[in-house]
Amino acid sequence: MLIKSIPNWAIKEGQETPEAIYLNRRSLIKGFAGALAVGSVGGNIGGALAQAGRAPMDFTHNDAFVLDRELTPEDVNIRYNNFYEFGSHKRISDNAERNLKPRPWQIEIDGLVNKPLTLDVDELIGRVGGLEERLYRHRCVEAWSMTVPWIGFPVQKLVDLVDPLGSAKYLRMETFNDGEMADGIGSQPWYPWPYVEGITMAEASNDLAFLVVGAYGKQVANSMGAPIRLHLPWKYGFKSIKSIVKFSFVEERPVSYWEEISKGREYGFWANVNPEVPHKRWSQANETVLHTQERVPTLLYNGYGEQVAHLYAGMEDQDLFV
User: Fold this and answer.
1) Domain ranges across the chain
2) Backbone angles phi, psi at 321, to 5 degrees
3) CA atoms within 13 A on the CB side of 128
4) Which residue from 74, 91, 94 is spatially nearest to 151, judged by alpha carbons?
5) Spatial distance between the Cα atoms of 208 and 225, rounded to a whole number of angstroms
6) How far apart are CA 199 and CA 266, in angstroms?
7) Could you say which of 3.90.76.10, 3.90.420.10, 2.170.16.10, 2.60.40.10 is the CATH number of the domain covering 60-312?
8) What digits encode the pLDDT tens for the residues 181-240?
């Protein structure tokens, strides 16, 4: 007998986000007449969804990932986010869209691996064997949240490409470090560039850990971390590093960007979402949902505890929630 397990963050069948909301119909209607059928292969959406030179992507929608709230409209996601390489404020989108050059884009994968690689992002996409769309929540440490239809592949597929050694304990990642392309780097020299993040090999192998190359049916927007970024839906957003140029498999735990800036006092390595553990300067008990501005209770591990809580068993001595 086939038993279908329903995740604790899922909603009942028939209550998923309506397709019309997913396609952000208001912006689509402006551009063309008629309806679009997404079907099982999202790449069939076609050129009508392309904006700002971002090509439509070929992907399969993963029905296992559903949401308890409607998707955040694309224009909100593009225009309200953090990307310190382009400025330490929420108004970076125009700067990033204009100046970030996401193609060509070389990626280096090195460290404690049997098969180190240096390849272009599009070659990497071709080698992972197919893209999928997942609907994920995103919870910022600043106590706001959004929902996104990410397109990408599990981190595990990248791990499999390079065959890590048993001594590899962490996956360290770096963002680009180009002050000519991103003026926030040159104008903010006090920050520890490049942006660095890290996760354990167990976290990298968890099915929720996702490398994003697209969103809303097409290549991911520059301001959202083009051409490739990480998304870890159970952690605060600063862990989901953008515009990655390097993956290194290492034995020692990396010191992440915000961990280094705050000396671990406000932002730590783990950064798991927990409504009962406040930030040093504000509560994490609730969050503002962008677009609707509704204030809702925050969930432990952002609602993904069933999938990830076991990763931290026996680690009560660690600051898991900062």
Assistant:
1) 60-312
2) -120, 25
3) 24
4) 74
5) 18
6) 18
7) 3.90.420.10
8) 999 999 999 999 999 999 999 999 999 999 999 999 999 999 999 999 999 999 999 999
Q: To which residue do tokens 């996104």 refer?
A: 148
User: Which residues have a Cβ under 8 Å from the Cβ of 314 and sit 6 or more positions away?
Assistant: none
Structure confidence by residue, pLDDT tens digits, 131-163: 999 999 999 999 999 999 999 999 999 999 999
Beta-strand relationship, 196-200 and 170-175: antiparallel
As given in the structure block, the two tokens for residue 272 are: 């798991």
- Give 10's contacts (C-beta < 8 A, 6+ positions apart): 66, 68
In this predicted structure, what is the pLDDT of residue 307? 98
pLDDT tens digits for range 25-53: 333 323 322 222 233 333 333 333 334 57
Tokens read off for 122: 């599009």
3 state DSSP class of 77: helix
